[in-house]
Write a structure and sequence with these properties.
Largest sheet: 8 strands, mixed
Number of strands: 8
CATH architecture: 3-Layer(aba) Sandwich
Radius of gyration: 21 Å
Distance between the termini: 40 Å
Shape: elongated
Mean pLDDT: 80
Number of domains: 1
CATH class: Alpha Beta
Order of helices and strands: EEEEHHEEEEHH
Number of helices: 4
CATH topology: Rossmann fold
């Protein structure tokens, strides 16, 4: 799975909306999940790093040395991002993000609904579909805080009748802390694009694994909350 880093100007950023025409459905109270089997599958786009905004260089005719230094700093950041992109690609290739996300979401959801998780998509009583449109990180500036973005929908359906039991649009946007991606409180409270570019491949693998597990936690929480409301 190729991990992409993109830099776009703020004016050109268009946030992808949730799936058009897909509202919420909640029939969870109509089903007894005890001892029923549920399988999960995930459609996940390549994890992406989106740099929102671009460096604007204003030439200072009275101080050409300062202008040259600014240009040099911008070029250095671009080179750092390109090198980081290679490490991110390598890290992403070592992780089955869709498989891990589906498995962890299923296990967390089973604790609440009481069903039996299974890997058998054809034989399961129900199938939980995780359909993500956006999955990745976003930063406004090189030194700005990185945010985790998760967008799409979840659908739980009867595997035989294809009846939708539950459907929910998902949009999660939250700041990334060093602790969230496995670096502990000593790394500080703000995780920046500069810090991301400085991670080794092994550190990026750990960060992606932690982000995937966190995404599974958030998705399972959405199902849990609607299940509790349906009672």
């Amino acid at each position: 799975m190729k991990l992409r880093i993109r830099c776009v100007p703020v004016a050109g950023l268009v946030l992808a909306g949730l799936l058009a025409g897909c509202g919420s459905t909640n029939r969870l109270s109509e089903v007894d999940f005890t001892d029923r089997t549920v399988a999960a599958r995930a459609a996940v786009p390549p994890p992406s790093i989106l740099m929102v905004g671009s460096d604007v260089i204003v030439a200072d005719r009275d101080n050409p040395i300062r202008t040259a230094a600014t240009v040099g700093a911008v070029l250095a950041r671009e080179r750092a991002l390109r090198r980081a992109a290679d490490r991110l690609d390598s890290a992403a290739a070592q992780i089955d993000v869709p498989g891990r996300l589906a498995r962890e979401t299923l296990l967390r959801s089973a604790r609440v609904l009481g069903f039996r998780p299974t890997a058998d998509l054809h034989g399961a009583d129900f199938v939980l579909d995780l359909r993500l449109e956006r999955y990745g990180l976003q930063a406004a500036t090189w030194e700005g805080a990185v945010r985790f973005i998760l967008e799409g929908e979840m659908v739980l359906m009867d595997n035989r009748s294809r009846r939708v039991i539950w459907r929910k649009p998902i949009r999660e946007v939250e700041p990334v802390t060093p602790a969230l991606i496995g670096f502990g409180p000593l790394a500080g409270n703000v995780f920046t694009a500069a810090a991301l570019a400085g991670l080794s491949t092994a550190e990026m693998v750990r960060a992606l694994e932690r982000l995937t597990d966190h995404a599974a936690h958030r998705l399972a929480a959405a199902l849990r909350d609607d299940y509790e409301r349906a009672d």
